[in-house]
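Technical annex, item 7. During the second reporting period the consortium partners agreed on a shared format for inverse folding records so that results from different sites could be compared directly. Each record opens with the tokenized structure and is followed by the designed sequence. A conforming record, contributed by the partner at site C, is shown below for reference.
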């Protein structure tokens, strides 16, 4: 068996690509869920708060399917990552680089094929629940979806109809307790709509593609009890990346701390923030379990491809920062990805191949449904990955181009040992992940690693050209601070 794939339970040990007649698809796509904040990922993660994480239902999903332990986002920002998924291509192709209401925002162009139209045209009943970040023009209804429930306005209106106060925001983006029953919270609201759309798909007598995009665990973590107090803050140990002095790193990283007003925070100040984040993940996990139970009750679990993932990770105190931005650290690039399709994906299997998750999921869903992928879809089918159909990727390439605080381009390339971060307007970064997995020491100026740096730059150039990346313009040149 390939070194990148192993079956964790007794059995055939085979993962293979087989034919399924129009399986249903349930895609749960959360927002800012760290890779190491899934219980099943704890043995593979660094020491830290992950030791406390309780996600029995995501663990159950992994036990019934495949856990992809080396999945990375193509871009660590909400709108462009989601546009990568729907269009199956890089941000440099769909050009939706940033989120709405920021400098340079635009949705992906209509001329690019997108999953909603492809699945709708193929006879699927498509439904989108909760977060939609204007990654396409209009709404999912304009692209073939049969149902769309917007979370931004929909939940707030529903909450008001129940006679409840607005969600509290007295602590800004740092999170707090929501004094309503958990069943009246936003996660439960979205899960109920998702359950209704699964039932509607079954009743319609056609395959369904139901996508639930909860905004959680994206900050602020406004969590009902008992989940808000599930983790005792004083028992939450620091992330391994927390004690980062940001020496010889791009200055915008320290500027980010200043803007968040968390420069100089000790871990005790971060602990309640992280505890609420973990509590909200546990609450989300509970509702994932309810949806898995529903598939069983309806008798469609064996005919449904279930995938859990997220758009990107979250610092939540990692490197002394909050949110995500201006950084190429695994805190925000490495993502959870779990897939289950009984009979076609071996249970309790772990795949360590590099995955560019939004691109590869787009190709995978089309593959599962038997829909021909347009040429613009550049990812790989995860069925092919676990079946060893083609050689494993030796590295992963990722992009970034700014946010609310301004446009700053970065490009990232990671292999099994090394990571290179290219920041044209500031200091480049080089990390030895084998000896420095928390990415604390920038080796970019160390002549001992000139050959590794040269190789990574060559590989990055190949990936950038394949993605038609605009940073490969005619005047482009590496800042050769050290020579190979």
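Designed sequence (site C submission):
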């Amino acid at each position: 068996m390939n070194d990148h794939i192993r079956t964790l339970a007794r059995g055939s040990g085979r993962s293979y690509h087989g034919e399924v007649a129009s399986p249903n698809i349930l895609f749960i796509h959360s927002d800012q869920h760290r890779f190491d904040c899934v219980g099943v990922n704890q043995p593979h993660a660094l020491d830290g708060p992950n030791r406390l994480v309780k996600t029995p239902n995501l663990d159950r999903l992994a036990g019934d399917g495949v856990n992809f332990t080396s999945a990375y986002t193509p871009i660590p920002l909400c709108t462009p990552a989601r546009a990568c998924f729907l269009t199956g291509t890089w941000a440099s192709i769909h050009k939706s680089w940033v989120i709405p209401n920021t400098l340079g925002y635009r949705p992906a162009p209509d001329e690019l094929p997108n999953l909603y139209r492809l699945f709708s045209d193929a006879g699927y009943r498509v439904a989108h629940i909760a977060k939609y970040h204007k990654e396409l023009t209009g709404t999912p209804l304009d692209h073939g979806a049969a149902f769309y429930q917007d979370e931004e306005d929909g939940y707030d209106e529903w909450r008001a109809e129940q006679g409840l106060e607005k969600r509290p925001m007295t602590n800004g983006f740092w999170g707090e307790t929501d004094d309503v029953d958990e069943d009246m919270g936003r996660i439960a609201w979205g899960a109920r709509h998702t359950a209704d759309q699964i039932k509607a798909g079954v009743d319609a007598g056609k395959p369904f593609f139901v996508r639930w995009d909860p905004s959680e665990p994206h900050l602020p973590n406004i969590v009902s009890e008992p989940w808000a107090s599930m983790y005792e803050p004083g028992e939450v140990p620091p992330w391994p990346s927390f004690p980062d002095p940001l020496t010889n790193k791009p200055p915008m990283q320290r500027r980010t701390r200043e803007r968040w007003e968390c420069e100089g925070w000790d871990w005790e100040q971060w602990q309640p923030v992280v505890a609420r984040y973990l509590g909200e993940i546990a609450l989300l996990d509970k509702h994932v379990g309810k949806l898995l139970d529903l598939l069983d009750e309806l008798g469609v679990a064996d005919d449904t491809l279930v995938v859990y993932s997220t758009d990107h990770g979250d610092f939540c105190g990692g490197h002394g920062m909050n949110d995500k931005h201006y950084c190429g650290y695994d805190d925000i690039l490495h993502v959870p990805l779990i897939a289950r399709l009984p009979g076609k994906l071996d249970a309790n299997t772990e795949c360590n191949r590099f995955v560019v998750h939004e691109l590869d999921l787009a190709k995978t869903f089309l593959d599962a449904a038997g829909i021909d992928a347009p040429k613009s879809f550049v990812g790989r089918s995860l069925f092919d990955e676990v079946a060893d159909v083609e050689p494993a990727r030796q590295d992963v390439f990722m992009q970034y181009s700014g946010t609310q605080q301004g446009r700053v381009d970065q490009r990232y390339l990671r292999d099994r040992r090394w990571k290179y971060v290219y920041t044209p307007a500031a200091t480049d970064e080089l990390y030895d992940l084998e000896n420095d997995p928390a990415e604390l020491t920038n080796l970019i100026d160390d002549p001992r690693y000139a050959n590794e740096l040269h190789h990574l730059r060559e590989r990055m150039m190949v990936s950038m050209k394949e993605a038609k990346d605009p940073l490969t313009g005619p005047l482009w040149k590496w800042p050769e601070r050290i020579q190979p």
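Residues 8-20 have pLDDT under 50 and may be disordered. Residues 267-298 form the longest helix (32 residues). All partners now use this format for quarterly exchanges.
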